[in-house]
Each structure stands twice: as structure tokens, then as C-alpha cells.
Amino acid sequence: MDLIEIFQTRRSIRSFIDKPVEKEKIRKLLGCLQYLPSSRSIFPTEFIVIDDKEILIKLADCRDHGASLLEHAPVAIVVLANAQKSDVWIEDSAIASTFLLLSTVELGLGACWVQIRKRKKGKISADAIISHMLNIPPDFSILSIIAIGYVDENYIKPKSKFFSLDKIYFNHYNSKL
């Protein structure tokens, strides 16, 4: 599958079948991360791979809504960064999250980005909840958790929305080709 096909077929998968992801596939997925770009080659982003069911169930309750799919994901990868190392840790971590999302398609897996930064459970930040749960040092901030697993084929729906090409301009805003 070429990269354009991956872009065309990738979906946010929120439902997985009850099948563990093989360690070899996880290793391949993580191997893709060694090719990440990073501003000024600082590489502030780090990852925690979670396959412990009890931890996944707790992570599913880390924010008010939108994380429950983690309870049924066989694997999740917490994307975090040392925010003191780089002023663009968010951008670097977003690129890393996107690498993970796209790499899963090539491996026959599905994935979904669970936003953590700026999300809350009641009045407590999801970042604080997860940091406490996973012993993350205070200089680190969590951007996202990527839920990964084998796609529940009954769940797949066609994309209902696409980015509008009307939002692309040339040389000046509102100047069409």
C-alpha cells in the first residue's frame, strides 16, 4: 500500500475485535518512530506502550468523554514529551501521533487519536490523572493516547466529511488556481 492509499483508507477506529496485537507488529510500529522529524533535532517526545488490560480500563476513564474506547483496545501508546526541552513539543508530538496513526494502516491495524492535552475529568486535567497513574515525571506533558488494535469490520463507516479543496489558495488568500 502506498502512502496516498494509506491517506485514502485511514479512518479513526473506535471499535476493535478481541484479539491481541502481536509483539512483532508492535515492534514494527515502534520502529517507525526512529524516523520521526523533530525541530532542531531535540526529540522531546517519548512513548509509553500499554497492553495491560487493567491500565487500559483506567485510562478509559481519564477524561469526561472520548476515551472509553481505550477499555477495549488491545494496545495504546501514550505520547508525551519533555515540555522543558522544546518550545515546539506539541508540534513534535502531534507529528509522532500522526506517524503512529498512519503506520497502523500498513500493518493491517486500526487506530484512533485520544486527545489528552487540555482535556479534563471533572476539574482535574487528564494529563495530571495519567501522569499520576503512570509515574510520569513533572517536566513531561501528555499530548495524546493512540488506541490500536484489529478493526471491528462491523464498525467501519465511510468517511462522511472530507477537507474541502475550496480552502486551498495560491499566492494570496482567496486566490484560486
Provide an overview of this structure.
The protein is built from five helices and six strands; from the N terminus they run H-H-E-H-E-H-E-E-E-H-E. The model has no long low-confidence stretch (mean pLDDT 93). It has helices at residues 3-9, 23-31, 53-59, 89-106, 126-134; strands at residues 45-50, 75-82, 110-115, 120-121, 124-125, 140-149. The chain has 177 residues and is an alpha+beta fold. The longest helix is centred in the middle third of the chain and has 18 residues, at 89-106. The protein has a four-stranded antiparallel beta sheet with strand order 1-2-6-3, with helices on both faces. The chain has a two-stranded antiparallel sheet with strand order 4-5. It is globular and about 55 Å long. A hairpin with a 2-residue loop joins strand 4 and strand 5 (124-125). The chain has a single domain (3-153), classed as 3-Layer(aba) Sandwich (NADH Oxidase). It starts with a helix and ends in a 28-residue tail after the last strand.
Question: What would the keywords be for this entry?
Answer:
177 residues; alpha+beta; NADH Oxidase; 4-stranded antiparallel beta sheet; 5 helices; 28% helix; 19% strand
Could you provide a short overview of the structure?
With 177 residues, this protein is an alpha+beta fold. The chain has helices at 3-9, 23-31, 53-59, 89-106, 126-134, and strands at 45-50, 75-82, 110-115, 120-121, 124-125, 140-149. The protein contains 5 helices and 6 strands, in the order ααβαβαβββαβ.
